């Protein structure tokens, strides 16, 4: 299955994936409106192996097209796991403009879908034109 434009797996041998992650999760970048879902995972984590394919499948759904999905292996990218205060796997972080909006610890597919749906509503509200005289 080919990679979708909004699903990026960080890889040590692919610096462009690391650059995309750094840019999408940076709070200090002016105008960063990125809506991001991050799966902090590990190769040895059983529950991660169960929920991981669902996370990727959600990234391919039309209703979540405004969200950029990242998969981050905590062993390969320990500095990101530390920066995002990851204590258990899987942990999902949901960011808007680099700021933490929500998180989910554990491999609950229904809760993950619910969190993504909430994020998708936020994307939709950002893309709606605001009535005259109202700020976004």
From TrEMBL:
Transmembrane segments: none annotated. PROSITE patterns: THIOREDOXIN_2 (PS51352). Keywords: Disulfide bond. Residues 15-121 form the Thioredoxin domain. CDD domains: TRX_family. SUPFAM superfamilies: Thioredoxin-like (SSF52833). The keyword Disulfide bond applies. PANTHER family: THIOREDOXIN-LIKE PROTEIN 1. This is Thioredoxin domain-containing protein. It comes from Coemansia javaensis.
């Amino acid at each position: 299955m080919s990679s979708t434009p909004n699903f990026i797996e960080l890889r040590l041998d692919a610096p462009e994936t690391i650059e995309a992650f750094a840019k999408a999760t940076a709070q200090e970048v002016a105008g960063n409106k990125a809506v991001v879902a991050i799966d902090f995972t590990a190769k040895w984590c059983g529950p991660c192996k169960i929920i991981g394919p669902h996370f990727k499948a959600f990234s391919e759904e039309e209703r979540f097209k405004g969200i950029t999905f990242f998969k981050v292996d905590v062993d390969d990218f320990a500095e990101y796991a530390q920066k995002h205060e990851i204590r258990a796997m899987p942990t999902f972080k949901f960011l808007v403009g680099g700021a933490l909006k929500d998180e989910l610890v554990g491999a609950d597919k229904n809760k993950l879908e619910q969190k993504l749906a909430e994020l998708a509503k936020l994307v939709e509200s950002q893309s709606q034109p605001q009535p005259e005289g109202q700020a976004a």
